[in-house]
């Protein structure tokens, strides 16, 4: 299903630009993206025309199944990864080898320099992360499924929602339903925040009973075949204050304005600005305390960042979240989040849960 040679060939294409003979991939997620291997503790050495996965005996069978076209170097029991790396690298001789500077410890690099004195280790950053920004057809199809699972679970959970439930029970219910529908698990621990707790953007659900809380913020997502979905809805009951209703309409308008701005060639910072302008017009920009969104994929937060300081330009194939929020300490918080695919002509909202004020009215 996954077109491994294409991904590795795309990386190999950058070797000239990076002025290296090989790239040593040490980040587990990047190894998975390039090779399809879902285990851990393994490195990938990519050269022009070939790639070798460095691993240990636990993964020999799994590698044969998941990456049949790759060369394999397995360290026997008693040999450590640095020893295997030294033998593979020394065979190459005098080479310039790109390393992932953000995914290698200073200690490991020091050992590699001492072990392989003929190699030159060239620091690179975000090389594979930049490839991962543009999703292929498989990744888009998997993400659609991750979104669909999250949505079905949410609908079922809301239909059963009772004031006796605690925030933690809601989080647990979402998680178990997502697993039952084929997700590996959650893409991050769900945020379930009743009433004023929602004013903390990254609140952890506690033993608080929903009780008569007027509002309930739920931020959740499924991890399906490695890919994340990430959605937020903010529910309210009839006794929610008018200031909540007004603020909700403004956040929704900001979210729709940002989605409207999305398209290939658009600066990510401009999408953030489109939301911020709506909030500023209503005097709520200071209550919007985070960036507008982020890429999703094999990780819940990946490039591109959608914020005022982002330097990225959107391109077809990116999947990003749009999640404006306002937070009023001791009172309430509102966030509305959807997952958006950038297309050749503009964008497609992958999530379909209704989000109008009336749609998010929770009735007992
Ligand atoms: Zn989220
Ligand atoms: Zn998010």
SSE blueprint:
Elements: H1 4-13, H2 15-18, E1 22-25, H3 28-35, E2 43-47, E3 50-56, H4 60-66, E4 71-75, H5 81-92, E5 96-100, H6 106-115, E6 120-124, H7 127-133, H8 137-160, H9 167-180, E7 185-186, E8 191-194, E9 215-220, E10 222-224, E11 227-228, E12 231-236, H10 242-261, H11 268-281, E13 293-295, E14 302-306, E15 319-322, E16 325-328, E17 332-335, E18 338-342, E19 347-349
Parallel strand pairs: 1-5, 3-4, 5-6
Antiparallel strand pairs: 1-2, 2-3, 7-10, 8-9, 9-12, 10-11, 13-14, 15-18, 16-17, 18-19
The structure holds zinc ion (2 copies).
Residues 219, 230, 232, 323, 337 line the site of one zinc ion.
Short description:
With 364 residues, the protein is an alpha+beta fold.
């Amino acid at each position: 299903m996954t077109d491994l040679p294409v991904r590795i060939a795309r990386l190999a294409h950058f070797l000239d630009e990076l002025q290296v003979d090989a790239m040593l991939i040490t980040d587990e997620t990047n190894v998975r993206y390039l090779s399809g291997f879902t285990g851990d503790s393994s490195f990938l050495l990519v050269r022009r025309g070939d790639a070798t996965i460095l691993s240990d005996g636990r993964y020999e069978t799994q590698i044969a199944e998941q990456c049949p076209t790759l060369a394999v170097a397995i360290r026997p029991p008693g040999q450590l990864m640095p020893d295997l790396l030294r033998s593979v690298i020394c065979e190459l001789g005098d080479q310039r080898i790109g390393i992932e500077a953000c995914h290698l410890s200073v200690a490991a690099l020091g050992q590699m320099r001492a072990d392989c004195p003929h190699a030159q280790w060239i620091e690179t950053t975000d090389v594979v992360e930049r490839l991962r920004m543009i999703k292929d057809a498989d990744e888009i199809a998997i993400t659609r499924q991750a979104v669909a699972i999250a949505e079905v679970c949410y609908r079922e959970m809301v239909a059963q929602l009772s004031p006796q439930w605690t925030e933690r029970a809601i989080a647990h219910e979402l998680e178990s339903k997502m697993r039952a529908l084929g997700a590996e698990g959650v893409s991050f621990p769900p945020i379930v925040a009743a009433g004023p707790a929602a004013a903390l953007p990254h609140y952890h659900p506690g033993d608080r009973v929903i009780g008569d809380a007027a509002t309930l913020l739920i931020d959740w997502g499924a991890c399906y075949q490695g890919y994340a979905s990430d959605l937020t809805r903010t529910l309210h009951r009839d006794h929610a204050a008018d200031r909540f209703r007004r603020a909700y309409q403004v956040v929704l308008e900001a979210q729709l304005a940002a989605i409207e701005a999305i398209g290939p060639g658009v600066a990510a910072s401009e999408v953030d600005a489109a939301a911020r302008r709506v909030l500023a017009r209503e005097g709520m920009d200071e209550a919007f305390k985070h960036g507008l969104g982020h890429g999703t994929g094999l990780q819940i937060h990946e490039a591109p960042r959608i914020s005022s300081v982002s330097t990225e330009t959107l391109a077809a194939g990116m999947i990003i979240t749009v999640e404006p929020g306002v937070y009023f300490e001791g009172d309430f918080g509102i966030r509305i989040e959807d997952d958006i695919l950038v297309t050749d002509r503009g964008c497609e909202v992958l999530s379909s849960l209704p989000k109008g004020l009336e749609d998010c009215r929770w009735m007992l």
